[in-house]
Amino acid sequence: MDRANGSLFSGFILLGFSNRPQLETALFVVILVIYFLSFVGNSTIILLSVVDPHLHSPMYFFLSNLSFMDLCLTTCTVPQTLFNFKGKDKTITYGGCVTQLFIALGLGGVECVLLAVMAYDRYAAVCRPLHYMVIMHPQLCLHLVVTAWLTGFGNSMVQTALTMTLPLCGRNQLDHFFCEVPVMLKLACTNTFINEAELFAVSVFFLVVPLSLILVSYGHITHAVLKIKSAQGRRKAFGTCGSHLLVVIIFFGTLISMYLQPPSSYSQDVNKSIALFYTLVTPLLNPLIYTLRNKEVKSALRRIMGRTTD
């Protein structure tokens, strides 16, 4: 590991949008508001999934895990971003950068796997309704979630080690607002072809494979729903699955645009905008999508509100 030629290395400088101070001031307010709304929204879904018996089902068990991951992701990146945007100090310690990279990368991998698991859950609910509770029994659900977490953070451990051991030759300015693998690869002062190839292969595994499984699941779901004679039944099935599919499109769309291209071809302004969307806007959209498009969640929220007012 090259810590910028040794003992003088104290950390990295996150440039962010430092060349546009007025933009940073405006973004500080916007990010703070979105972070607060995201925190409230995801915390509400976790709370409802725990306290409301009507939501003690596999779907909401997975959804509460998704909300917990979104809470962790925003908390991992946003406070440091707000600190850097507010003041003149743009630094992050070496240990802070490693931690941020490890957690953000791990959570991204977990969410990729979990969204595929949620698609399988919807497939079982729509295509095998009579056997749904037998197929998605609590022990299997727990195993699937544990597998998602172990897979995501196992990969993150390897990626973080490979990335943070690259020689930097004194370079410590990251043209970004948090530590991310493609940005770290651009900072390295050695040929990163092997790292880029390995990152691409891992990205295919965590992005293309789960997305393909999701699309296959929804192909079967669409075929099954079209066979339902009741228009109300079709609307209910499409409504439940539509929320998940919308989350999938937003999540995978942003990550594919970030990771399935060589770091050398990145436009940093575009990449920073996409990263902001992925780490900030997506965690806000998830609870909104699932709440506004889901009658069960809205009913649970009304029941909880009713208890508090009694």
TrEMBL record:
The chain crosses the membrane at residues 26-48, 60-81, 101-120, 140-158, 200-221, 242-261, 273-292. Its main location: membrane. One of its GO terms (molecular function) is G protein-coupled receptor activity. SUPFAM superfamilies: Family A G protein-coupled receptor-like (SSF81321). GO terms for cellular component: plasma membrane. PROSITE patterns: G_PROTEIN_RECEP_F1_1, G_PROTEIN_RECEP_F1_2. It is found in: Cell membrane. It is a multi-pass membrane protein. Belongs to the G-protein coupled receptor 1 family. This is Olfactory receptor. It comes from Mesocricetus auratus.
